[in-house]
Amino acid sequence: MSPFSLESQVALVTGANTGIGQAIAVALAQAGAEVIAAARRDCDETLDLMGSGRALQLDFADPMAARDVFAEERVDILVNNAGIIRRADAVEFSETDWDEVIDVNLKAVFFTCQAFARSALPRGRGKIVNIASLLSFQGGIRVPSYTASKHGVAGLTKLLANEWAARGLNVNAIAPGYIETNNTEALRADAARNQAILDRIPAGRWGRAEDIGQTAVFLAAPASDYINGAVLNVDGGWLAR
């Protein structure tokens, strides 16, 4: 069997209704996995693109939303992609916007990983792929809770790898660069901002959601079995600039 095959594996992808999450779900399905597409909204389009799979409604406004999911069925691969962002100057940023982002982007990631591990550790095998960000390494502006949450995802990925690697669970993360999704449509529509971003990317192009999807396949597959605690930049060279 190919070291990149996911045949006979069951994967759960959060935030799979659109954008990067949708591309990850489709890529995992193409590699042979049975994919559970989880989101707070319907995943009909994702299921159509996969041609198979199942949908699961999960709203991580409740960080414990997935606490019972893994007790009910076997899942071999967990991709924590669901996330939100709030923008305001730091001096004006509200407690509500802080708490909502931290709950979804960090607290939910930890407790979903915990629930998955309680099921997977006795089997001695499992893969977790967390979606971090360039703002796991940089500060950004006007997104204090998002930046804090993504720094937290990077640190949490390393901590969980330290605890679980010897027990058969691989925990890694992907830090996407500037990707062509609905979330970046306004940036790409601004000619000056778009050009400034392109000038900084050595690859000379925006990333595609499929670039993240294929990286997730690698981190979910046997080919990455000796990779633990990595935060893999998929950014066209942005951070190297």
Walk me through the structure.
- The protein is α/β, with parallel strands linked by helices and 241 residues long.
- It has a single domain, classed as Rossmann fold, CATH 3.40.50.
- The protein contains eight helices and nine strands.
- The protein has helices spanning 19-30, 44-50, 69-72, 95-120, 144-164, 185-189, 191-200, 209-220; strands at 10-14, 34-39, 54-57, 77-80, 126-131, 169-176, 179-180, 207-208, 231-234.
- The strands form two sheets. A seven-stranded parallel sheet has the order 3-2-1-4-5-6-9, with helices on both faces. The protein has a two-stranded parallel ribbon with strand order 7-8.
- Helix 5 (144-164) links the parallel strand 5 (126-131) and strand 6.
- Helix 1 (19-30) packs across helix 8.
- The longest helix is centred in the middle third of the chain and has 26 residues, at 95-120.
- It is globular and about 50 Å long.
- The termini are far apart.
Quick structural overview:
This protein is α/β, with parallel strands linked by helices. 40% of the residues lie in helices and 17% in strands. It has one domain: Rossmann fold (3-Layer(aba) Sandwich), CATH 3.40.50.720.
